[in-house]
Amino acid sequence: MKRFAPLIAAAGAIAMSLPLLSAAPASAAPAPDHSPQKPAWARCSPEQPASYECATIKVPLDYRRPEGRKLDIAISRIKSENPAKRHGVMLLNPGGPGGSGLDLPLMMNEAMPKDVRDQYDLIGFDPRGVGASSPVTCGLSDAEQAFDRPYRPETFPSDVAWARTVAEKCREKSGSVLPYITTRNTARDMDSIRAALGERKISYVGYSYGTYLGAVYTQLFPNRTDRFVLDSGVDPDRVWRGMIQVWATEAEPAFARWTQWTAERAGEYQLGDTPKAVSDTFWALVARADKDPIVLDGQKITGDDIRTARALFFYPAQAAPVIKLLKDAADGKPTASALPDLKQFSQSARVAGAARSTKAASAFAADPAPDNGTAAFWSVLCGDTGAWPRYAEQYERDAVKDKAKYPLYGDFASNIKPCAFWDRPVESATPMRTKAGVLTVQNEWDSQTPLVSGQDMHRALKGSRMVLAMGGEGHGVYLADATSCANAPVNSYLTTGRLPERDITCQTPPAGSERRAPLTSPVPQRFPVGASRF
User: Fold this and answer.
1) Confidence at residue 361, expressed as pLDDT on a 0 to 100 scale
2) CA-CA distance, 185 to 376, in Å (whole number)?
3) Counting Cβ atoms within 10 Å, is residue 428 exposed (0-12), middle (13-18) or buried (19+)?
4) 364 falls in which pLDDT band (50, 70, 90)?
5) CB atoms within 10 A of CB 270
6) Which of 231-235, 297-301, 392-396 has the lowest mean pLDDT?
């Protein structure tokens, strides 16, 4: 089975609390009911099947004031071709925050087994602030969108200045809207879509960030939650700084696994014949590149560039040839292969361009601003929770400590972010207190929502079941890999509505360099969670 194509294809002194995005006091109450208009469906594009339809509905900017300012929410659908077997509607989300979901019905329609596909009208949507749904912007340059910043004492003041600048630009450009670009409000929008479609309940498949969005929906609207698949889970207790920091903690066991794998193939890669020897070779290469950047294919590669590619080490069969290539170039040896763009492995690059769905573009207005995905990303990360530290010194202390403890990515993860300068959120983060009979799905070796994160989401959602694909590599499981052992139990759940009696742990065949390569190809792969950060 082919993979999906991404929407993912996969960021001085005291940080004063500026009056950015001024907001009302926090409220945990669900949205009041309101009556969105019925969608006026039309063909999305002459280049796409007539069955692929698009529409726009209006939703409140602030659900506490349903008669006030409105936002557009762009939606799409492909209806079930078997009315006799139709169970209901299935909403879809590819991850992000900042990822467009309009194309997902096309992708799922192609990839889903027919006995599952027949049961649902597939519903895609661009989350509020994203793509064709009243897109937001902060007016950020390409450099300002990058947030992979290593900690160094001499550059930390400029990192603080960057974080402050991003926050200030967001307030200037979209300050009246950004406080409401949050996960809770997007969940309310999902319920508005449900109401507009005339459905009593919704089913849902959400990847990565989409798992948190789905989990929040189950808490706000438990009686409207039908069959929910949460694939590659975000830990609700880590939103959102902790989810960035988990990239650092879990890169270390992935790196250790890579050194073992590579040492077992010492004759092929010549990077060392023990895990320690491979590790020593790698860190010597990083130190050399920091002093004298490696020039390859016209790129200058520093040691920090190599470390930002920490996601690479979740794919040993891909990481080993890349590191060998870099070492050969550093040693002045001829290199026959081209180096993959290491920026593809960094977090900052993973959201660039992810906000806009191209296939449905002709049905809506002009493309959003180039920084749309990044603007939506920070709006959600900073607006979902008030747990971000407010002082630059805290970020500096954490970056120093975590660089020593998690050398591959610790300082990048804990360095200062724009949320240090964001104003307090409109609402608190959503507690996971209500029982949620949903199915969570997880790969053992997931770089973006690592195993510990997926397991903690499962634990947080009382009544959920988990399908864990041991040996599974990559971000995203269901339909992302035709050989995954997780596909069958997910298909069974979506077909019958019955959760497994107990958690399922299965074994996925080992991945080789020819399989599960969503990060190394310059061509976007056909899977909906790669170009997003979560």
Assistant:
1) 53
2) 13
3) middle
4) confident
5) 13
6) 297-301
- Kind of pairing between the strands at 465-473 and 439-445: parallel
Rg of the chain taking only CA atoms, in angstroms: 22
Provide the b/e sequence for 353-374 (b: ≥16 CB within 10 Å). Answer: bbbbbebbbebbeeebbbbbbb
Going by C-alpha positions, the residue among 61, 130, 102, 125 that lies closest to residue 371 is 130
Percent of the chain's residues with pLDDT above 70: 84
Distance from C-alpha of 442 to C-alpha of 506, rounded to nearest angstrom: 11
Structure tokens at 123: 């519903």
Terminal Cα-to-Cα distance of the chain (whole angstroms): 24
SS3 sequence, 351-400?
CCCCCCCCCCHHHCCCCCCCCHHHHHHHHHHHHCCCCCCCCHHHHHHHHH
Nearest one of 296, 252, 343 to 11, comparing CA atoms: 343
Q: Residue 306: count other Cβ atoms within 10 Å of its Cβ.
A: 23
Three-state SS annotation for 488-527: HHHHHHHHHCCCCCCCEEEECCCCCCCCCCCCCCCCCCCC
Residue 534: the pLDDT is 86
Q: Compute how many other C-beta atoms are within 10 angstroms of the C-beta atom of residue 195.
A: 17
Closest Cα partner for 197 from 325, 83, 75, 100?
A: 75
High-pLDDT (> 90) share of the chain, % = 80
> What tokens does 90 get?
């299935």
**Inter-residue contact 534 to 234 (CB < 8 Å):** yes
- Beta strand 202-207 with 294-296: parallel, antiparallel or unpaired? unpaired
Q: Which residues contact 114 (CB under 8 A, 6 or more apart)?
A: none
Percentages helix, strand, coil for the chain (3-state, rounded to 5) are 40, 15, 50
520: confidence class by pLDDT, cuts 50, 70, 90 = very low
Confidence of residue 519 (pLDDT cuts 50, 70, 90): very low
| Structure confidence by residue, pLDDT tens digits, 186-209 | 999 999 999 999 999 999 999 999
DSSP 222: G
- What is the arithmetic mean of pLDDT over 277-305? 95
> Number of helices and strands (H, E) in the chain?
16, 12
Please tell me the predicted confidence (pLDDT) of residue 7. 29
Cα-based distances in Å from 287 to 283, 293, 300, 301, 326: 6, 10, 14, 12, 13
Contacts of 293 (CB under 8 A, 6+ apart): 300, 301, 302
pLDDT for 269 beyond 70: yes
Contact assessment for residue 47 and residue 196, using Cβ atoms and an 8 Å cutoff: no
Phi, then psi, of 59 in degrees rounded to 5: -135, 160
Q: How far is 187 from 30, CA to CA, in rounded Å?
A: 10
The residues with which 92 forms a beta bridge, in sequence order, are 205
DSSP state of 150: -
